[in-house]
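Structure (tokenized):
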């Protein structure tokens, strides 16, 4: 059995090597020709597996019978085309959700420090309350941050209680966090969910953070609002046209990162392991490798705090001990200017440095800092 795996999927040798002959290839180079002699394909979101690619691969005599994407999102895979050709499919829901929440908290606390406000004073609107948005909502509420949630599909299934409309969030929230999948058609389409009209309606001082899908925001309208009045703030991890993103919008975003919100080592290995277990089920084999077998010791596993900082300052310090979002912002600017946008964007992702999740850090609080214990635990830290 031949198994083709995206070159940036970690842990592939340990997971898939014992199951067959392993081949690695950069995700953007996986096309119909690459699939000709492949039985199993393991990809990430940069590989687009559409009907035309699959039809061409089958016409070439491809043996492909299983596709797994080590990602939460699945809009890069035409699942109907897979089913039509009798090819099994698996994704990794929730694999990097905690990492994305770390990214959101790190971004908000960085901008609070930079702009001189406090997170506790803000009301956050979460658009899309699935694996990521639900975890973000839980952590924010655990530390006393006021939240509103917008998720029309869930409201339709579960009832409207606990959910608000997007227009209500725009009217009432200081921060909007987008965590929606890309849906192009139907009653709950999210393509350009924030279109020119809604972007124009954002109140001065609003912070918009998009860590869902780039096409959910009208990039041209966002660029116009930021370059015109310049009275809102944007944190953008996802973009229209990736990797050929708009350099003007990149420069206008307060934090601009190359689609890496979920790129923790923990999240990546969790995604690899989820696809490994799905493939084992497909093959009727036992999954002999556990996630703990893949995860290394965290470089910073313990901090001791004696006091002198308030709760937000403490959380900011702890987040930066394991992940500093400013590094990724600086990397995208530097590499895209050095190599050009497309090559620089991809280089940032391909050469992404080691990053762990907040939950890998254990915090020991001295007596003077112990008053923050419940607040910090709610934010996602482990306490000794």
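Design, position by position:
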């Amino acid at each position: 059995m031949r198994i083709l795996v995206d070159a940036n999927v970690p842990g592939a040798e340990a997971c898939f090597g014992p199951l067959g002959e392993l081949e690695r290839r950069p995700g953007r180079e996986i096309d119909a020709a690459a699939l000709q002699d492949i039985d199993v394909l393991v990809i990430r979101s940069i590989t687009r597996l559409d009907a035309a690619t699959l039809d061409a691969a089958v016409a070439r005599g491809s043996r492909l019978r299983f596709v797994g994407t080590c990602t939460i999102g699945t809009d890069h895979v035409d699942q109907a085309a897979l089913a039509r050709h009798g090819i099994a499919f698996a994704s990794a829901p929730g694999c990097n959700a905690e990492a994305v929440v770390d990214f959101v908290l790190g971004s908000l606390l960085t901008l609070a420090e930079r702009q001189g406000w406090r997170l506790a004073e803000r009301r956050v609107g979460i658009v899309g309350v699935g694996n990521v948005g639900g975890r973000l909502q839980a952590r924010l509420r655990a530390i006393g941050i006021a939240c509103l949630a917008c998720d029309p599909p869930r409201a339709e299934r579960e009832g409207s209680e606990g959910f608000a409309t997007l227009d209500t969030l725009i009217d009432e929230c200081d921060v909007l966090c987008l965590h929606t999948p890309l849906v192009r058609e139907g009653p709950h389409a999210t393509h350009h969910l924030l279109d020119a009209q809604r972007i124009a309606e954002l109140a001065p001082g609003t912070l918009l953070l998009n860590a869902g899908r780039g096409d959910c925001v009208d990039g041209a309208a966002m660029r116009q609002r930021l370059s015109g009045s310049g009275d809102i703030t944007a944190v953008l991890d996802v973009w229209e046209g990736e990797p050929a993103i708009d350099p003007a919008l990149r420069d206008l975003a307060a934090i601009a990162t190359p689609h890496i919100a979920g790129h923790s080592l923990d999240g990546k290995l969790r995604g690899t392991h989820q696809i490994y277990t799905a493939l084992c089920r497909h093959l009727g084999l036992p999954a002999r490798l556990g996630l703990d077998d893949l995860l290394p010791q965290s470089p910073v596993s313990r901090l001791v705090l004696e006091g002198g900082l308030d709760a937000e300052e403490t959380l900011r310090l702890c987040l930066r001990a394991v992940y500093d979002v400013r590094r990724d912002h600086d990397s995208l600017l530097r590499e895209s200017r050095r190599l050009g946008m497309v090559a620089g964007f991809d280089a940032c992702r391909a050469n992404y440095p080691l990053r762990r999740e907040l939950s890998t850090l254990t915090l020991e609080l001295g007596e003077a800092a112990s008053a923050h214990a419940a607040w910090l635990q709610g934010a996602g830290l482990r306490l000794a």
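Reviewer-requested clarification: The first strand starts at residue 2 and ends at 6. Residues 42 and 283 are 15 Å apart (CA to CA).
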